[in-house]
Amino acid sequence: MIRILSATQGKPTRWFAGMFSVLLLLLIALAVFFFERKLQNEVKFEVASQLKHNTAIVAEQFERRYRADLSYLHFLKDTPPFPGIARALKNNGVDPQGNQPIELWKTRIATIFKSLIHNNPELLQLRIIMPDGREFVRVDRLRGKVARVSEAKLQDKSHKDYVQETLDLSEEMHFASRISLNFENNKVQRPFTPVLRIAMPLFDADNDLFGLLVLNSSARQLIELLESDSAEYFLTDHQGHYIYGPEPVFHYTRDLAKPRLFDDDFLLHSTAKGRVDGVIKHGTQSMLVAIQQELNSGYQGPGHEMFITAIAPPQQAEALLNERRLSSYVLLTVVVLVLLLFMGGIVLFYRNRERYQEDKVVYESIIDGADEPIVSFDTQLNVQTYNSASLLIFPSLAASERQHKITDLVALPMDRLQEAVTYFKHEDGPKDTDWYESYMLQDQIRHVNFKVSPVRGPGNQLVGITLFGRDTTKEKLSEQQVKSANEGLERLVQERTGELEAEKAKAVKASAVKSAFISTISHEMRTPLNGILGTLNLIRREPLTKKQLSYLEMTETSSSTLASLINDILDLSKIEAGKLELEQEPLNPISVVEHVVTSISLKAYEKQLNLVVDVADIDFIELVGDAGRIKQVVFNLVSNAIKFTSKGCVCVRGQTTQEAGKVFLSVTVEDTGVGIDKNNHHKIFSAFTQEDSGVSAEFGGTGLGLSICKNLCELMGGEIGFESQKNIGSKFYFTLPFALDTAKSRPHENTLGGRRFELHVVDTRERSFLSHVINKYGGTVVEHDGEFVVADHDNPHINTLAETPMYERTIVLYSEFTHQNVAEGFLAKLVKPIRLGAFLSVFDQNAIAKMLKNQHQVQVPNVQCNERNDLGGATVMIVDDNQINREVARGILQGIHANVVACQSGHEALSALLNFEKNDQPVFAVLMDCNMPTMDGYQATRLIREGKGGESFRHLPVIAMTANAMSGERERCLAAGMDDYVTKPIQPKLLFDALTKFKSFQQPKKPPVAHMPEHPPSQTTTQNNAGEEVEQPPVASGEVLDIDGTIARLQGDSELYLQICMLFYNKAPQKLLSLKEQCNKQDHAQVKQISHALRGQSGDIGAQRLTQLLAKLEEGASHQDGSEYSALIESIEAQYLVLEQVLQEAVFKTSSAVRQGSES
């Protein structure tokens, strides 16, 4: 048997190459390491040597000056006037030798002084100072002239250090000062004159001190020696005061009383021998090469030492180091390249050798493993090689080890092979030849097809032939069997065809019965199940023990799970039966994705998860498809992500792409949850299947949600997939196609106009989303010096902005849970998850309108958008602390093309108006809620009239919105400065009439109005989240809940109605409990406030009877009358339970496919 070359045979070469590479890299690393150390030491030494040389030259110049000045003093001391002056001073001013007066000697010595100063330009002053410090004779160089100073201008210098120290010196000793500025009359002489002072004591013949000889010389030329481009020179005194440096700030700090020392700027580094070899500049970590040398003036007195410190600029050392590196590394590179070429040759040789051996063994193995016999001959027809299959046809090949000849192969005709050899010897002969043979082998007839091909060597010379054989015995037998079998099959096919048609009819009937049964039973189960849920809500209002409450919660969970299962089974049944119809209506993909994420955000924030929705890359505002089914898929994926994530973030991203005449909408939902094990990926989209039994036990669910999502995506022509890692997180994504010709793209505008933003946001995904939006819409994200700040509400950075102008340029991000803790006065406050339009509208009030332009909306016939009430994009501000009220007003105003800005308090409204005025943006009107905490509508309106919201908005129309319809309320609103008054629940016609009065206040450019088909006035419909159009039940027109009238009031926006009903359903129970508690306490103020808020909210959803009861309770609280509190609370609770049942039956049931979407 031929051995096949294994994969490990190539390892020696790879091992050798790998070891050589590692060794080479190690050698290179070591060489670079030692080269770098050697080069850095050499460069440091060379730079230090150059500094030392230059410093020594400068020091030598200083010492020469000291010696020159000292020689002048020795010369002067030996002139005749000095002994004469000494004798005259002891003889009452007359020299006894020659009887000459002292004035004569003073004149002579002054003449000598002038001559010496005149002939030596560096000399500035020569003086004789008496032992008491008074100047005796003084000659100055002033403004280029040399002159003796008059007796009247001679000064007392007894306080000077050079006078005091020189008086203590003995004969032949001298004083040398440090360089300092010249002082006259205790003031620095200007322009600055750097001076060196040399002084020596004068003794008479009796060795008595009679005066001091002082010489002042200019140090300007010495200072100029310190001005160099090759190094920075610092001249300092013994205490580190700067005398001179490369910048004016280092000049004469002691004389000019500047509190700056050398140690304040630099830290000296010394060798073990105490020699300075470097400095570290404070505030940096790098050491600079430096040399320090003391100047030798010959004077040993303390306090007048001077030091020169030379510091080499870092670029000088770096340039020299790079120059040395270039030459060193070029050599190293050449050596490495030579080694690499050598190594490459060796590796190539061994690799080719291994490949040859491998190919040879592989080819032999292939031939030996072939099922067909292969035998090779030389030109003399001697057998050369054969494979194992040849033994089946030519058993004689195994008879002996000798070389076989053609005659040993009894089944082969020798004449045919010899003829083939003859043909193949000609270069233009046939390429191969074949024939068919039948012969007896072991008492059986064998059918074989033979084929012969030439084997040619160099020069195309024939070196042998190869015989290929194929045993066709089984094929011949199979042909006979197939022929007879076909005749029998034809008869069986005819019989089975009839049976299958009958079975198909039965299966179709059974499928129809199953679908009908599932549809019927699921609908029939809903009615008692809703009764159970309603009863459970009634029980929850009763006093319960902890054990009973636990049982109640278990029952509610089981009931909700059963409701979810029923909805999922119904959807699955429709899909399997092929009866699920898809709508093809215009939809806004941005609104679809953001609406679903926002509606479920409460669940995320209850678990303290961060939720991010990023739709910045959705470039279309209208596509044609089934919005309900898209929402159902998004809802399922997002709710799953929230369910299976205990901490971290859920991020939803949407984007659109174009390809081949289609628009593809892609949505990705990514979480940091538990993840899915790789071994379970294959079953995630199967119906009634979860990752494992533990998932259902821990998180619940039926395993239908993802299966439905997959079926819906495929029905819409798209696809869905996921990526997941256990304990890391999951990413689900789907892509849906839409027609390009019916799509409407979103205009790309430079909304942010180059503004700079600082981001102080903790979550990385949220920060990434904001950066993406800012950059895409023309802004820039910076670390510092931004024009605007975007920050989390609890970010500590906000506190640092409180006393700065940036406080009013800050956008605060918060969730509904934290709103009560957010301060006022910011530029804007945005609710998480952040909507794209909400962020952009801070800078462009028309941003939301542009983003939702062309969105499909229904116009009801009661109040149509016409020329009279169309606001044409004008900005209307809604000020209300209640989210339901804001959403209702927003929905009504968007129907007449208003650009809506919502504020949650009076403080926030004033800040927003100031921002509008600052940006020169008009506001059409303000809808002001009267009763709000902190600052109510009355106070906010008065402040607007006082100009606190901007001078340009003093007369801005303010329309009151209040649920208080009692007598005198209208007059109170008008007295506070409001212009008009509408009651809650808001009637669109009354609101439009009020707004129309003020259209002359500001009339912005009117955008085009998209007119859509109207619903018939006789029937009001709403669309559930599954995309199904459902007729409202007859209970809507009753006294409990006026659904028809309320939807008409909302301009036919049934989706908005569902949203405010959900908000009311979630928040009302807690407020009712609080109301009951305050009634029991007889706290009339709180009862009035809570009942007023609840009355407005219940009116917004059309709960007429509950609104009436709350109005009675509010009226009693206003009159401080709590006698009917107990009865009214009981009635309100009972009415709310009825309303809750109606909401579940008539409103929420129609959207349960999405609201209670099953999760896998």
TrEMBL record:
Primary location recorded for the protein, binned into one broad class: membrane
Transmembrane segments: 15-35, 329-350
SMART domains, per database record: HATPase_c (SM00387), HisKA (SM00388), REC (SM00448)
Known catalytic reactions: ATP + protein L-histidine = ADP + protein N-phospho-L-histidine
The organism's place on the tree of life at top rank: Bacteria
Name this protein carries in UniProt: histidine kinase
Cellular component GO terms, alphabetical: plasma membrane
All residue ranges annotated as the HPt domain in the record: 1053-1146
Region (Disordered): 1003-1034
Signal peptide: none
Skewed-composition ranges (Polar residues): 1017-1026
Keywords on record: ATP-binding, Cell membrane, Kinase, Membrane, Nucleotide-binding, Phosphoprotein, Transferase, Transmembrane, Transmembrane helix, Two-component regulatory system
UniProt keyword Phosphoprotein, yes or no: yes
Domain Response regulatory: 875-999
Residues in Histidine kinase domain copies: 520-740
Listed SUPFAM superfamilies: ATPase domain of HSP90 chaperone/DNA topoisomerase II/histidine kinase, CheY-like, Histidine-containing phosphotransfer domain, HPT domain, Homodimeric domain of signal transducing histidine kinase, PYP-like sensor domain (PAS domain), Sensory domain-like
Residues bearing PTM 4-aspartylphosphate: D929
Membrane-protein topology: Multi-pass membrane protein
Modified-residue entries (Phosphohistidine), positions: H1092
Alphabetized GO MF terms: ATP binding; phosphorelay sensor kinase activity
EC number(s) given by UniProt: 2.7.13.3
Subcellular location: Cell membrane
Pfam families in alphabetical order: HATPase_c, HisKA, HK_sensor_dom_bact, Hpt, Response_reg
Keyword Coiled coil: no
